[in-house]
Amino acid sequence: MPPMQNPPDLRPDLARARVTETRRDGQPTIGMVSLGCPKALVDSERILTRLRAEGYGISPDYSGADAVIVNTCGFLDSAKAESLEAIGEALKENGRVIVTGCLGAEPEYITGTHPKVLAVTGPHQYEQVLDAVHGAVPPSPDPFVDLLPGSGVKLTPRHYSYLKISEGCNHKCKFCIIPDMRGLLTSRPQRAVLREAEKLVEAGVKELLVISQDTSAYGTDWKDRDEKFPILSLARELGQFGAWVRMHYVYPYPHVRELIPAMAEGLVLPYLDIPFQHAHPETLKRMARPAAAARTLDEIAAWRSDCPDITLRSTFIVGYPGETEDEFQTLLDWMDEAQLDRVGCFKYENVEGARSNVLPDHVPEEVKQDRWERFMEKAQAISEAKLEAKVGQTLQVLVDEVDEDAATCRTKADAPEIDGNLFIDEGFEHLKPGDMVTVEVDEAGEYDLWGRLVGQD
Is position 73 annotated in a ligand binding site? Predict the structure, then answer.
């Protein structure tokens, strides 16, 4: 039986690039290290697509590349440290490194540690990255060989793809510096999003993962918009392509309830990824987030009433400055009531430039750890009970990987990398990634399911 894939300390903010490409003789080649969230992964795909169109090859490692791009994350201090470590490793293994991404918004922070990097650019500064690559490794295209796939260069498996619908964020959460790094909300035109989605589905993508910093605010930055909340029509339009459509980073505005009918109708997956962050009103107030945890429970009840199969995922912060034991207990009690299906949790840490750094009453590290463990114990028990209830059900699943031991699949309730899996460990040999199959669930663990193949869609 394959081991569980998702231990409780899994970080939901990490994404990793996967590149498989052969190189022609004499082709200039660029390596890519993509750190951070799926939004950064989309940026990496766009950069590589542009480079591929100019005749560059894409290398999956440092040694086979003429230069390496490191797309960094700067959301947490631990992520900054990880980015600096990745830059250092790239310098050691390759020596010619171009840095981009969120941490690139602080070039002195990078060059102070790694003065030998060739260039530093900020997030979504595609032209500057290309200029830096041209300077380091001049292009040498072969128009008869270098054909770009219609869907561009993908860093995810071919059967699913992230679809970024906007950049930036208008919120002022005290623990977050995303608006400083990526700016205020800027939504992509709906026609551009739909055109990209259609191309992806035509290229074989079975699942579209809709991402942004604030998905439910999509289009509200347009002054001359025809509808108050454009995300509602976008979701329905995306549902017309026949792929799974999964909504990530949906801020819990009241109009989110209007997305639920599209889920009940099967146009959008019955799945919401909503960053609640905490449940105590005073903690939320110190975070500069809406302090409406009680009303949130009412909203959750309404969503489940309209779409009983809905899966709810969220992330929380424990040990935020000033968090008392009573406030933390309120969060645990709220979890008992909310019964969320999928949960991630961070221990609070200071981030340079965040307003929360100067708040009084920072929580000692050992208390943060204790609260994180108690929170995850609660979340794990809820997850285990919910998965046990699925034993005996017949579910449609998407195959992600097949090896000698099992086919690793996901149900509609599971996003790639951050949620659980369903394993088929008998009669799976003919399956391949991207297949849609029907299974009967026959066993459940704390985070994963096992099932018996019933049929192929």
Answer: yes
Residue 409 annotated as binding site: no
CA distance 421 to 402: 13
307 is in an annotated binding site: no
345 is known to lie in a ligand binding site:
no
Question: pLDDT 10s digit of each residue in the chain, 457 long?
Answer: 444 444 334 333 333 444 445 556 678 888 888 887 777 777 888 888 778 777 788 886 677 789 999 988 877 777 788 889 999 999 998 989 999 988 888 888 899 999 999 999 887 677 888 888 888 888 765 544 444 444 455 566 678 888 889 988 888 889 887 778 778 899 999 999 999 899 889 888 999 999 888 999 999 999 989 899 999 999 999 999 999 999 999 988 889 999 999 999 999 999 999 989 999 999 999 999 876 666 899 999 999 999 999 999 999 999 999 999 999 999 999 999 999 999 989 899 888 888 999 999 999 999 999 999 999 999 999 999 999 999 999 999 999 999 999 999 999 999 988 899 999 999 999 999 999 999 999 999 999 999 999 877 6
214 and 329 together in one domain: yes
**Final residue in a domain of this structure, among 121, 136, 151:** 136
Domain extent for 34: 29-136
Tell me: is residue 173 an annotated ligand-binding position: yes
Are residue 266 and residue 344 in the same domain, yes or no? yes
Q: Is residue 313 part of a domain?
A: yes
What is the C-alpha to C-alpha distance for residues 306 and 20, in angstroms, rounded to an integer? 43
Whether residue 432 is found in the same domain as residue 366: no
Choose the final residue of a domain: 370, 388, 406: 388
User: For residue 106, is it within any domain?
Assistant: yes
- The reply to whether 123 and 57 lie within a common domain is yes
203 shares a domain with 79: no
Long-range contacts of 141-145 (CB under 8 A, 24+ apart): 141/54, 141/55, 142/24, 142/27, 142/55, 145/24
Integer Cα distance of 253 and 24 in angstroms: 51
102 marked as binding residue: yes
383 and 407 in a single domain? The answer is: no
Burial of 217 (0-12, 13-18, 19+ CB in 10 A): buried
Helix (H, G, I), strand (E, B) or coil at 71: strand
* Number of structural domains found in the chain: 3
- CATH number at 186 reads 3.80.30.20
pTM of the predicted structure, to 2 decimals: 0.75
